[in-house]
Every structure is written in C-alpha cells, then in structure tokens.
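Q: How would the structure tokens look for this protein?
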Amino acid sequence: MPLWAQLLDVLRERLGRGDFARAFPTDAELTKEFGLSRHTVREAVRRLQSEGVVTRERGRRTFVRPAAIEQPTGAIYSLFRSIEAQGREQRSTVLSLAETVDANVAARLGLRANARVVRLERLRLVDGQPLAHDTAWLPATIARPLLEVDFTHTALYDELALRCGARPTSGSEWIHTELAAAADGQLLGLRGRQPVFTIQRLSRFEDRTIEWRETVVRGDRYTFVAHWQNGGGYHAALVPMSEPLAAGGGGQP
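A: Here is the predicted structure in token form.
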C-alpha cells in the first residue's frame, strides 16, 4: 500500500477510538509523528476530507466533523429518542417556557386570536454541541401543566402524555433548506451563512390540533432517511407547498 493509504488506515482507526475528540493534528504534527513527507500527509487528510470525516478551511486547523444524526421520516418521531438511540447524549438549553398570546400561532392551531398558548423554545444539543433551534406552541388549555417541567433532558411528547393526557396521533410536516439567519447561526455555532434545514410541524391529537412547531437544524449534522419497499410499506414523495411558510422552521418532539 502507498504510504498515504497506510497513514489513512491509522488515522481512521484513531478516529474510531475517539483520539481526536479535542482537536485533529495539523499536517506539521502528523509529519513529525510519522516521519512522512508533507505531501503524503496532505493526501491522507484530503481523503478523509472527501469522505466527509474532517473539514478544513484555509488558515484554520482541520476539524473532525460530528457524525450526522439520521432521522427516519413518515411518522411522528422524537429527536430526543433518535439521538439517544444512536448512543449520543441529548440535552437542551431552555431559552423560553411561558404562557403567551400569538395571533398567528393561534390561527395555525385553530384557536381564537386572543387564545392563550404555551411556548417552549429550546436549543437542542448533541454531545454538548448545538444541533437545532426548536420552538413549539401548544394550546394552554391542554399544555399548561408543562410550565412546571424541566426540559433539560426529556422529550416534549413524553411530558405531554404524562402530564396532559395527550400525545400526537397524526400531523403534517414541511421541510426545506435555506441559509441560516444571523440569530440562528449564532445559536447553532455556524461560521457564516451556512445551509440549514427549516422544519414546520402541525400535530393533532385525535381530531384536535395541539401543536405548531418551528425548528432550524444544522444541515451538516442531520440527515433525513426514507425507507421503502415494492408492493407496500412506507411511501414518501416531494409535493408542492399548499400554503406559504411562516418565518422559521419546526419539527422535533
């Protein structure tokens, strides 16, 4: 095997062990450690970059890219459960949890313009790193008990079922991409206006609308996955939007 390929195998093994969790070594450090030419080192690192394992920018160090969270579509899902099922730690920083009035959201929920709603805004973290900026609104007549919940490490839908006796049974979700707004970019730790997923979700419990959600998710750490089979099973299709999107995005319990 050429020297760059041998080095590539070694780096892959060390990445798998988590040796570079704090920082990936520079070309100069790898050259010194392995006694190889800078050209050989650069070729091995270039291969890692083409595989999406690391990222590098001119004038900056090389960074290890966190593994993307895979999210199946086509059913009610929980970001909390999806993250922890993949062996990652999910935490949230609660930015706002309050009862308020919002005429636009009330219209989404099929309520009067002055109806009270519970608003939960969170910064969702994976292994301590920002993944999503998530805001959910629910009718206060149902969700008022949620005002007493610590949402640092729990799922909204679990608490909704436990404390309010309701859990979404159906819904609709709209997903598209855009460049992150400045405020979202700052919250999510993005450098410049990077692409993000914006997600909007409308959830129902039996015949009543109980949630409107807007979420902005880092595009480099999140992947939607659809599973299908001939003759049946789940079917997904891209369809035109039937109504204009409001500002923001939304979608994980």
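The chain has a mean pLDDT of 81.

The chain has two domains: 3-64, 69-225.

Upvote if useful.
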